[in-house]
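The pair is quoted verbatim as follows:
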Amino acid sequence: MTLRINRETELCMSLAARPGNFGTRFHNFLYEELGLNFIYKAFTTRDLRAAIAGIRALGIRGCAISMPFKEDCIEFVDELDGSAQGIQSVNTIVNRAGRLCAYNTDYAAVAALLKRSGISPASSFVLRGSGGMAKAVACALRDAGFRRGTIAARNQASGRALAGQFDYQWTPETDSLQADLLVNATPIGMAGGAEADDLAFSVAAIARAVTVFDVVALPAETPLIRQARALGKQVISGAEVIVLQAVEQFVLYTGVRPSPDQIRRAAEFARAL
């Protein structure tokens, strides 16, 4: 069917510092595929309080939250689901008759990918970053039984806090670190950013690792993922994370779970830019 907008159309949206097209294309593809009267649009803002208030005031059904708003938006919502409460980081807001309920579908995506990868929880890991996404990753690692972990973050306050929250070590350094599993939860390698061409870990650290996990979704092949593949490492990409978390957002917004084939085709369409 061809999407036709009318007064009953439900609006969903996203808020990010650098809005991308993946979510917009992914969700709108599935709305049309499933014949749902929804539309999705990406936004940025310099006034987060007003933007969140607008979700409530205008009856916007749902909103995906990306960097750097995942923690700052918490004070403006009414309720934290368990997925966001323990992490204190939000990536999804659902408007239920004017009550804003916040979730974290990043956690579910990361947990599923860790389980699928078959990585032993006895493995050591280094997680670079201490923001909202790093919180979701650290929580998923902790809940999967990973105990030998180090949070690598230049920001001492947030790095120490994250390490303490999940009983891991903290360090401001990355170059000399080595571990079985390396995880990047920073914007390093993100398309359009100041560090788009940089590696989140040294080549030596990548060479010593068994598995490399980059949560950066755009591009699908970040410098870190390319380097890890070149060295024959098992990789988990942000392109996988973004699809899994977007599916869970879609279900929260619409109450409909797409089939695996529909998800695959939506992801292919979203990436074909």
Observations:
- The CA atoms of residues 22 and 271 lie 7 Å apart.
- The radius of gyration is 18 Å.
- The longest helix spans residues 238-254.
